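Suppose you are handed only these lines of text.
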Amino acid sequence: MSSVAGQLPLEGMPRRLYSCTPSRLNTWLDCRRRYRFTYLDRPQPSKGPAWAHNSVGASVHNALAGWWREPYERRTPLTASILLTNGWINEGFKDVEQSGRWLGRARDLVSGYVATLDPTDDPVGVERTVATRTKVIAVSGRIDRLDRRGDELVVVDYKTGRRPLTQDDARSSLALAIYAIAASTMMRTPCHQVELHHLPTGEIVEWRHTDESLARHLHRAEDLASEAAEADERYRAAVQAPPGTTRRAPQGRRETVGPPEVPAEVDALFAPSPGPICSWCDFRRHCPEGQAAGPDRQPWDGLAE
Ligand code: SF4
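From them, the structure of the protein bound to iron/sulfur cluster can be written out as follows.
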């Protein structure tokens, strides 16, 4: 019979590449328990209801991506409004009136933003998946927009949240740095500039990386990946996880599914990180520490009303 230790890599043996996204690494960094709920427990523990601010964000992102796919002559503010309206995601709002009000605001956001763009200036990529690998990780992610400016590529990330952004947000973003490295590798073109486009204020926050700062982000990603990979292996060895995805109840309703039991020493690898973020965590219903850390929020509380 195999033991937990028997299933771990032998010392000195190369570990399998850890496949991940920047989002997975950031989840590991933010809260290991949430990481376990999101990426390891299967069936996945049931999430709370959809958030209205996420509906706004996804609707805006989809409309902006669709706008660039339109023929050049249709790339107008009106088209952006129509795309936004047709693809409006209605989940998480208090009522129809609130959803309608935010639809109006989001229409203004996208039409105002595209009015600042040159419709002839086709991006290199829109919602473009990029990937790169090192000896430790195979990392991939999707870039909102990849521009070419002169001889260089520029990573553009749209933001719709209420919090104003700072240059530190662009500088310290692991995701943006990884996207720059991956885009540059795939397209054999330099990419050092990363930008956050904050639609509610129209502000563009930019940061120009050096080769050294990009390398630092990549090493950090590798360090996080090594920690997470080791915890993943310990978890998988301890839990006989059934293959498959989230169970679904009849009529497509999601069942309430809790996390599986794991030995205490494995649970300890995925300790909670209670804090203000817990009020917004999709899995707080399964997390007593997170519930104690902050109040419950209504699905529409993230809107800047
Ligand atoms: S509620 Fe907080 S501590 Fe619990 S899993 Fe979510 S983020 Fe982590």
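What can we learn from it? The two ends are 59 Å apart (CA to CA). Residues 211-238 form the longest helix (28 residues).
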